[in-house]
Amino acid sequence: DAKTTQPPSMDCAEGRAANLPCNHSTISGNEYVYWYRQIHSQGPQYIIHGLKNNETNEMASLIITEDRKSSTLILPHATLRDTAVYYCIVRVDAGSGYSTLTFGKGTMLLVSP
Amino acid sequence: EAQVTQNPRYLITVTGKKLTVTCSQNMNHEYMSWYRQDPGLGLRQIYYSMNVEVTDKGDVPEGYKVSRKEKRNFPLILESPSPNQTSLYFCASSSRGWSNQPQHFGDGTRLSIL
Known about the structure:
- The complex is a heterodimer.
- Chain A is mostly beta strands.
- Chain A is 0% helix and 46% strand.
- In chain A, the strands form 3 sheets. Chain A has a 5-stranded mixed beta sheet with strand order 1-11-8-3-4, with no helix packed on it. In chain A, strands 2-7-6-5 form a 4-stranded antiparallel beta sheet, with no helix packed on it.
- In chain A, strand 9 (92-93) and strand 10 form a beta hairpin.
- The termini of chain A are far apart.
- Chain B is mostly beta strands.
- Helices cover 0% and strands 50% of the residues of chain B.
- Chain B has no helices and 11 strands.
- In chain B, strands 2, 4, 5, 6, 9, 10 and 11 form a 7-stranded mixed beta sheet that branches. In chain B, strands 1-3-8-7 form a 4-stranded antiparallel beta sheet, with no helix packed on it.
- The mean pLDDT of chain B is 92.
- Chain A binds chain B through residues 30, 32, 34, 41-46, 49, 51, 91, 93, 96-101, 103-105, and chain B through 4, 31, 42-43, 45, 48, 50, 56, 58, 88, 90, 92, 96, 98-100, 102-108, 110.
């Protein structure tokens, strides 16, 4: 399994960009990088995912390094409602068409006024 | 609106009294799964289902049962609940093509077993 390493917590000022790093140095060539977030005890919410190329959607941007050993989730204009635990996950392929999502401890992002 | 619906959202019950937590999705997803979340342990998978009548154990299946008689429903059954099953439970679903499809989660069910 490709493990991920994230800082336990980060702070961000409201309106500024939040850049959340993730290391996944043992990632395999066919494993995707996923980002989810969980707002206090709510169900995890999908944000974005990517394989090799940088990705952008209405919520965030995902920057994956060329060697794929790390990535950064960017929330371009953080709001108070973005305060949550952010999980970086590398999708594990169980080999039967089903893949497990293994959640680590994530990064607690606190957005302050 | 695309969603995964769990019921009940909260339940306090006693040891040994059978209970069922329902999960329903309206996205015609093939894959469904159950997780529990405990402080310091993160989200752990209990059971998953790849399609109707196909279920398999996750990381922590002991004390739980599931069934998948219809595509949209995936109930979690605790035949004889015990206090160590007190937890926050999430149901999730995903379409076929697991590796590059996101999972959609329900809002959670908080169970307290006394």
